Amino acid sequence: MWTFLTIGGGIALILFAVRFLRKGLDRLMGPQIAQWMQRLARTRVRGFFTGIGLAVIAPSSTSMSALVVSAVKARQLDAKQTLPILLGANIGLTAMVLLIAFRL
């Protein structure tokens, strides 16, 4: 029973963090966030490095996935632009975890 409550609490916390991060970005950038995201993800290489940068700012692959999906849903990004961002975010997150694990 406690296991299900723990899992539910973890999911609720992740969803709250994603919503909080998205609202913070909206308040910070305002209506320019769509142009900013399109400019950063114009090419695959730039999208990849954007994903790595986002992984450093918000180290959660779930939150990155949710943010990118919400950007696609709002028609701010194409599906082609999201794949390099997610790949970069996952690689950046993996590199950060390895650096922490090896105490570098």
Question: What do you see in this structure?
Answer:
- This protein is mainly alpha-helical.
- The protein is 83% helix and 0% strand.
- It is built from five helices and no strands.
- The chain starts with a helix and ends with a helix.
- The model has no long low-confidence stretch (mean pLDDT 82).
Q: Quick gist of this model?
A:
It contains five helices and no strands. The chain is an all-alpha fold and 104 residues long.
Strand content: under 5%
**Main sheet makeup:** none
Mean pLDDT: 82
Low-confidence stretches: none
Radius of gyration: 15 Å
Distance between the termini: 39 Å
Helical run tally = 5
Output the helix-strand order.
HHHHH
Helix-and-strand structural type: mainly alpha
Approximately how much helix is present in the residues? over 70%
Note the overall shape.
Answer: globular
By DSSP, the count of extended strands is 0
What are the key terms here?
single chain; 104 residues; mainly alpha
SSE topology sketch:
Elements: H1 2-29, H2 33-40, H3 44-57, H4 61-73, H5 79-101
